[in-house]
Amino acid sequence: MAYPAVQILGLVLTAVLLGGLVARPEPTLHVLWDMVIPLLPAVFLINPMIWRNACPLATLNASTGKRMGTRPLDGSALRASWAIGIVLLFVMVPARRFAFNGNGPVLAATIVAVAVLALVAGMFFSRRAGFCNAICPVLPVEKLYGQHPLVPMGSARCTACSLCTPSGCLDLAGEKTLVQTLGPARRSWRWLATPFGLFSIAFPGFIVGYFTSENGPLATAPAVYLHILGWSALSLLVLGAVALSARASSRIALPLLGVLALGLYYWFGAPALARAYGGGETAGLLLRVAAGALIAVWLVRSPLARPRATLAGGITRF
Q1: Over the stretch 247-300, which tens digit does the pLDDT of each residue have?
Q2: Cα(182)–Cα(162) distance, rounded to whole angstroms?
Q3: Contact 53, 157 (CB under 8 A)
Q4: Class of residue 132 by CB neighbours under 10 A (exposed 0-12, middle 13-18, buried 19+)
Q5: What is the pTM of this model?
Q6: Coil, strand, or helix at residue 159?
Q7: Coil, strand, or helix at residue 125?
C-alpha cells in the first residue's frame, strides 16, 4: 500500500475537517462523530496498525521526530507518559458531551492544539517517542482493542526501527506490547494495580458512563464527569473484585476486558451508527450481530483459545 500518499491524504482531510468544523460545524460534526469515529474500535480489533500507519497526528509527530528529535523514551519516563495518556483519555472523551459534540470551532481549536503538541514533542524526542508512543490518548485503547490483531500488518512508518520507544511499542512489539507495558507485574495479581491494569478494568464502565450521559452546555461538565467517572469507579470495583477473587492472570483477563469494552461500545453505539448511514432498527440490530461475530472470531484466535506454550521443565511461557 502507498502509505506516504495515504498519510498526505490524512493531512489534507484533517485540513478539510478543520475548515468544516469552523464553516459548517453541524454536518461536519455529524460525519466525524456519527459516521467515522464509531468505526475505529473495529479497525483496532482488526489491527491498530491500519490507523497508526495513516493517523495525521502521527504523521506530524514523525515529521519532526525523524529530523529534530534525538532522545529516546524509556524507563520511568515512558511509564509515566502512558499514565498521562490514560488521564488525557478520561478527560477528553467526557468533554465531548459538553464541548466537542456540538461546538465545531472548539473542537477545531483542540485538534490544532493537539497537532502542535505532536509537532513539538517530535522536536525533543526521537521519531514518535514523545507523542504517539507516549501521551497519545488513543494509545491505551489501541493497546486494549488491538492485543491480538486479526490481520497481520507491519509498520509503514518504522521500517528501520531506531528503538525510540524500546518497550511497549505497538509498531515494534506487536502482540508482546501488553507484556512489556505491564512489566513484571503481569506474572501475578499485581497487574491489577498498574496504570494499564486499572485502565483496562475501569474502561468498560467508562464506556457505559459515556453512552448513558447526554450532551449539554458547558455548565453540565461537572455532572458529566461525575456520571462517567462514577461508572468507571463501579467497573473498577466490580470487575477488579472478580479478577482478584478468580486470581485471573493478565493473559486471561485482558483479552476478556478488551472484548467486553468493545462489545459494550457497539451495543450502545450500533443503533446511532446505523441511523447515520441511513439504516433503521434492523440495521442497528445487524450491526450488533456483526460486532458480536467479529468479537467471536477474535476470541477464537486469541490466546484464550490457544494452549499456553511450555518450556523445558514445565515452566509456562507468558
Answers
A1: 989 989 999 999 999 999 999 999 999 999 999 999 999 999 999 999 999 998
A2: 22
A3: yes
A4: buried
A5: 0.92
A6: coil
A7: strand
